[in-house]
Specification:
This protein is mainly α and 467 residues long. Helices cover 81% and strands 0% of the residues. The chain has two domains: 1-231, no CATH class; 234-467, no CATH class. The two termini are 41 Å apart.
Length: 467
């Protein structure tokens, strides 16, 4: 057994040094993403102490609205960028995305200018105040980096995108720190940093793509050709776009339900942001390369799909199980020690969502399986059912208990069960016998839960955060 493990690790490290291999490409993405996580680990505790939960609540609402409108700006075509073999067809997809983006900006401008009227319809949103005028910029700095990132993936430039994103996030946190110190933790500070720093960061993406390429994409061909391209990839706007948007709405249910309490909203938004760190670091690193690799294998070696899929599944599982177990049982203690008493509730929410985000880490990078198999409609059905389940559970908890804790816990229970099913569904559609790897993962997770629960009881006298 020891020799087999040593041989496996030797093979993995050999692949990392092999140019163009899966491990090599993933390592490039990982190295850039690690800059983001490192900056978060170092600076986030300081920034959180400066701004406090209320500022994160206002920022969470601003970001939720921006993400919704940015999602509407892409009719599901981002994931199609890697599919065309003809470069002109790819550029047509980019042009279609830019048309949708421009339309969303034009439609939202009157609402932003009349934000006081909107607040009379949705009073809870009034916490944004006049900063609602920055929403068009908020949408732009969410949409355009995603477009450029998928463009770079198309070009197999796995090194540039994570470094650009990592550098932008590092500068953003430094800006938030400095601005927070000078403004004494102004509630709007995180919003200013978001639009200012990410806006300037677009110049770096512009340089990475190349001025000539961007000029070319803005030279529009006849509408008939764009319509032909849209028809060829119609399953993306018809099925994939609704699936992505429904998924986003489902994730944001607690945000819009907690908006009447900015402090509770900030606690939840902060917890979710921290739990996304390993997804961005490891899930993104393997996910973008997995998407490119299986798109190529589907053309040349379709029989490789099960092997590639189970390999990524096993890597993500072994990376995530121990850290997420530790987070689940000790997050409140860590938050109190590192961030202060004001953030203990956020630590409890983090514990609630630990297993949910572990299953997300393992499953979401594998979603490309459904795209290459042209089974996007299953994703939409899954997201619709999960949205309904989340909404019923969260609204039911609010009616029965009327507390933020109950809403978050109900949302998390449904999400965890749904993503366990999702994980099995993805493996099955990739041609992998799903029962054995899923049961093995559950056994490992359960064993670690028992171990960390005992460790917590021994050190704190309680079995779980919040008890």
């Amino acid at each position: 057994m020891r020799k087999a493990l040593a041989r496996r690790w030797k093979e993995e490290f050999a692949q990392v040094s092999q140019r163009g291999s899966f491990a090599n490409s993933a390592a490039h993405v990982f190295s850039g993403s690690s800059l983001v996580i490192l900056s978060q680990l170092v600076l986030t505790p300081i920034i959180a102490r400066i701004y406090g939960p209320e500022a994160y609540g206002v920022y969470g609402l601003f970001l939720a609205i921006s993400l919704n409108l940015a999602q509407l700006s892409d009719p599901g075509l981002f994931t199609a960028y890697v599919l065309p073999r003809d470069h002109d067809r790819f550029l047509d997809l980019v042009r279609l995305d830019l048309i949708c983006f421009a339309a969303v900006l034009l439609l939202m401008l009157p609402f932003c200018l009349a934000h006081e009227v909107i607040y009379t319809w949705v009073p809870a949103w009034s916490i944004l105040g006049g900063w609602a005028l920055l929403l068009p910029l908020g949408v732009a700095v969410q949409f355009l980096p995603n477009l450029f990132t998928n463009w770079l993936i198309r070009e197999k430039n796995f090194r540039a995108s994570p470094y650009l994103g990592g550098g932008t996030n590092l500068v953003l946190r430094v800006f938030n720190l400095i601005y927070g110190l000078f403004s004494k933790g102004a509630v709007h500070g995180l919003i200013v940093g978001e639009v200012a720093v990410r806006g300037v960061g677009l110049l770096a993406y512009w340089k990475a793509i190349g001025h000539g390429a961007l000029v070319r994409v803005l030279t529009f061909p006849p509408w008939a050709r764009l319509r032909e391209t849209l028809h060829e990839y119609r399953m993306h706007p018809l099925v994939l776009f609704p699936e992505r948007y429904v998924a986003l709405l489902g994730q944001q249910i607690p945000i819009f339900m907690l908006v009447f309490d900015p402090v509770a909203l900030g606690q939840f938004a902060f917890a979710g942001g921290l739990l996304l760190m390993p997804l961005r670091l490891f899930g993104y690193s393997l996910g973008v390369v997995f998407q490119q690799r299986i798109a190529e294998s589907q053309h040349d070696k379709p029989h490789d799909l099960p092997r590639i899929t189970i390999g990524v599944f096993n890597r993500l599982m072994m990376i995530g199980v121990v850290p997420f177990a530790a987070i689940t049982f000790f997050s409140d203690v860590i938050f109190q020690w590192v961030l202060g008493d004001a953030w203990v509730v956020s630590g409890i929410y983090t514990a609630y969502m630990g297993h949910f985000f572990l299953f997300r880490l393992v499953s979401e990078p594998l979603t490309s399986v459904m795209l290459v198999k042209k089974r996007q409609h299953y994703l939409l059905i899954f997201q619709l059912v999960m949205l309904a389940g989340r909404a019923i559970a969260a609204f039911g908890a609010e009616r029965m208990f009327g507390t933020a804790d109950a809403i978050v816990l109900a949302f998390t229970v449904v999400s965890t069960a749904a993503y366990l099913f999702y994980m099995a569904m993805l493996l099955r559609n990739a041609g992998v016998p799903w029962m054995r790897p899923v049961l093995r993962m559950l056994a490992i997770v359960s064993a670690l839960d028992v171990l960390f629960a005992l460790m917590r009881f021994w050190t704190t006298g309680t079995w779980f955060p919040g008890m």
